[in-house]
Amino acid sequence: MESSESAKKQYQDLVEEISPNSRLWVDCLKAFVTGGLICCVGQWLNNLLIAARVSKDAAGTYTGVILIFCGVLLTGLGYYDKLGKYAGAGTVVPITGFANSVAAPAIEFKKEGFVLGMAAKMFLVAGPVIVYGALASVLVGLFYYFSR
Amino acid sequence: MDKHIGKQSIRFQNPPVIVSVSSVAGPKEGEGPLGSRMDRVSQDILLGKETWEKAESEYVRQGIELAVEKSGLPLSGIQYILAGDLLNQAIGTSFGVRSLQRPFLGLFGACSTIGEAMMLGAALVDGGFADYVAASASSHFCSAEKTFRFPLELGSQRPPTASWTVTGGGAMIIGAPEAEPGRYGACEECPRVTAATTGKIVDMGIKDANNMGAAMAPAAADVLTRHFEDLNIRPEEYDVIATGDLGHFGREILFRLMLEAGYDISGNTTDCGIEIFDRDQQDTHAGGSGCACAAVTFAAYFYPQLCSKRIKKFLLVPTGALMNSTTVQQGESIPAIAHAVRIEAGGV
User: Fold this and answer.
1) Looking at chain A, which residue has its C-alpha nearest residue B256?
2) Strands (E) located in chain B
3) Which pTM does this prediction carry?
């Protein structure tokens, strides 16, 4: 098999011709609807809490806590991955997806022990989100501070 | 060197016989098109063990023990075990054969391992170094996901080109032809390994670990072309050619590459990854993969047809992607390999 750069390029073209891509529009639509539904549930919870005379700030916190709990519970019961398979980014982006990304490795690596397994590998997936999320918030904070 | 022919092939002088085979597999494989033909299908993917790794080792142990049992030989009659799997340091296999207490040669050829094991096992037997050897390969969906992809419970989507790792173990006992006919094994006239072509590593620059078929197809094309040239035959000579785990799209790519090389293999070529799952019913996307894919499919599906002589000349071409998760993260392309093992029905 010739493996010069031009042969490789030609081969990549053949692979692209034959390999189907994910169905972008269908996947986007499913993600939009599912993600939107999760957010609607969040908004509904928030409204409910405010109606129950919880302060606006506390209501936001409680909503987050409830959604995270639901995400972890559904992960533990083995439903979230099935939902995620259907919804894609729709279940990854909301806060429930973040909960899933922490709970899933925690379950997987528990068998390697609570310290070096579960605790050490819990942030395998969520770690980059935390690192770059914190970094981004610092940069936005600085921008806000100096542009005021 | 009269057994070495052409550039990369060997022809066995006294073709070793495949005395018996075994296939043990998980629940999803049991629900697939070949489920009823498998020796043992477990409803519990963990086989009663606590971890995926221990479960995989249990598939290995059960597979080899069952193949030995079906051969009618005592375990002590097996002079070598040649086996491998996908996990780091091939622990699925070494922990699995630990209790068997037979001389062991651990192999790694990724999903091509069963081909490697069959070639080397047959060479040991034809060389007069052993009367009986066991060849085996295993994989486990969950341990492979954990090693190569994400934790199982993570909600993520797989692209259409992704494959589904087969859970199970396939094993076989290869023996010297003197043992025939009918002394051991279920088959009246056992199929024999008559020739083999060892593949080179082929890397066409594919980096997408979710498209293994594309990474491995050039290696399969390379070894097939070599095999036909070394043995001076045409692909039509084979009743069936079965690649290991190229899947639906990898097979398409292989057909195109072979046409460019002047061989039309579309009439008699299938892929173990295509046979073992029903992609419409089982949502397995490109098809089955993993070391167990070729091993289990050969044992459950092709071996019985060779025994009944429905297939007379068969070429098994297990394919392997030789990367790990570190090389993928470091942006390396995926080197691939394939070996071709020629098996002929007995007494033909």
Assistant:
1) A14
2) 4-5, 9-11, 17-25, 40-41, 80-84, 104-106, 132-139, 164-165, 168-175, 192-197, 240-243, 269-271, 288-289, 313-317, 319-321, 336-338, 340-344
3) 0.95
